[in-house]
Amino acid sequence: MKRLMLGVFAALALAGAARAEETAQEKANKAAVLAFYDAALNRLDFEAAAKYLGPYYKQHNPTAADGAEGLKGFLTYLKANFPKTHSDVTMSFADGDYVILRVHAVRTPGTAGNAIVDIFRLENGKVVEHWDSVQPVPDKPANNNTMF
Amino acid sequence: MKRLMLGVFAALALAGAARAEETAQEKANKAAVLAFYDAALNRLDFEAAAKYLGPYYKQHNPTAADGAEGLKGFLTYLKANFPKTHSDVTMSFADGDYVILRVHAVRTPGTAGNAIVDIFRLENGKVVEHWDSVQPVPDKPANNNTMF
């Protein structure tokens, strides 16, 4: 009975640990992506953002080049052309190695901006791959729900 | 000891049940959204798609109206103008009540099509809310990774 009890406790502990670890990793991934996003897209601070990148950064956004250098070039472009750009994350999700953000990005204050979804893949808690879709927010939508 | 054992087994069963339920619900949500998406966007079959809708359908896509009627109108438009439209789901995610799809949608065969991310919220396994961002796939991307 003692052995059975130990077995039950071990199973319970293992189940808890495995699941807690998964949840903790997803939470950590989400926190890392949110910090990365704020450093990059709001503070336009490449050095701060680069700390969240892994050993490579595979870019699926068709206007940006791969790697940390691609991000650097993009932030340099934003700083020069849209220094007041601001991105609000309105929803965030985590599933395994992936973090997904719904974002309202306004490059010039007072304009309608873009409705974006970003998908990031992480390895060991670091951002290594990125996909997105960017759509301008229209002036006259067919419903009153906003895009967010 | 017997009471303790029962307590441990009950805790184990409850923990397992609660987590299994979460996972099963996320899996069921993802399966429902994939079936909904295929019925709507590939088969253009409103009746088949409508079975996956909940008692309301709040639409954040700025070109569509709320409700099942909004979906019906959209599918009628696609049938009339793009009867050969096809959407490939290249990635799918589930987080709680939300399912997220990465999609390559080609309305006219042979064209580059659109890179889309769709976000669905479900209640009781039924689709009740939708957001998306739609971006044309460009001819000359800045990297060779495709948008998918």
| Largest interface in this structure | A-B, 45 and 46 residues
Please state the overall shape of chain A, judged from the principal axes of the Cα atoms.
globular
Biggest sheet layout of chain A: 5 strands, mixed
The N- and C-terminal alpha carbons of chain A lie at a distance of 56 Å
- Give the SSE string of chain A: HHEHEEEE
For the secondary structure, the number of strands of chain A is 5
The main sheet of chain A orders its strands as 1-5-4-3-2
Approximately how much helix is present in the residues of chain A?
Answer: 40-55%
If helices are DSSP runs of H or I spanning 4 or more residues, what is the number of helices of chain A? Answer: 3
Mean pLDDT across the residues of chain A is 90
Regarding quaternary structure, how should these chains be classified? Answer: homodimer
Give a quick summary of the entry:
The structure is a homodimer of 148-residue chains. The first copy, chain A, has 148 residues and is an alpha+beta fold. Helix content of chain A is 41%, strand content 32%.
What does this structure look like?
Two copies of one chain form a homodimer. By secondary structure, chain A is an alpha+beta fold. The longest helix of chain A has 41 residues, at 2-42. In chain A, 41% of the residues lie in helices and 32% in strands. The model of chain A is unreliable at 12-21 (pLDDT under 50). The first copy, chain A, is globular and about 45 Å long. Chain A contains three helices and five strands; from the N terminus they run ααβαββββ. Chain A has a five-stranded mixed β-sheet, covered by helices on one side. Chains A and B meet through helix 1, strand 2, strand 3, strand 4 and strand 5 of A and helix 1, strand 2, strand 3, strand 4 and strand 5 of B.
